Amino acid sequence: MTAPIDHCAETPTHAGAHAAVRWNLTRNIAMTPRAFMLHVGAAAGASCAIGIGFWVAGYPVVFGFCACQALALAAAVACHAAHALDGEQLVLTGRTLEVQCRRGFRSSTVRLDPCWTRLECAQGAAPPALCSGRIRVPVAVYLADTQRRRFAADFSRTLAAVRTAESPG
After folding, report:
1. What CATH number labels 5-29+85-166?
2. Are 113 and 95 in contact (CB under 8 A)?
3. What CA–CA distance (Å, rounded) separates 25 from 33?
4. Domain coordinates of the chain in residue numbers?
């Protein structure tokens, strides 16, 4: 099980380079894939065993419904597998903020200037969004409310530190 927020600061690769700060904001999946498949397989197997019992008793239609239920479980497993790695990865390196978003089979990358980027936190259940000009990227979509607040505070503090380090003075 991975943590929903994985934050690490990396060291610079060469002299004069800026350190990269990375946030991995992913789903919190509580079961291992093996345990998940065992539970789903047990549910589908029990349903098909009941259907076979009714078929032997002379009611083959019940088996058809049990087979449909097993197919629905298989479709749910495929949907779950497609979205298991959903989340965002934010990498802040000097003058670039790179946001990689994964939603199912779609992935997108947006590069923003940290000096012109702000994190807007809406009240209620809406996730925070990175805004820069007309670009708006929702982040921390799969985090709980307390984790969103912790991420927003950490991200805002780091962004402010990058801005003050970049400003001429």
Report:
1. 2.30.29
2. yes
3. 19
4. 5-29+85-166, 33-82
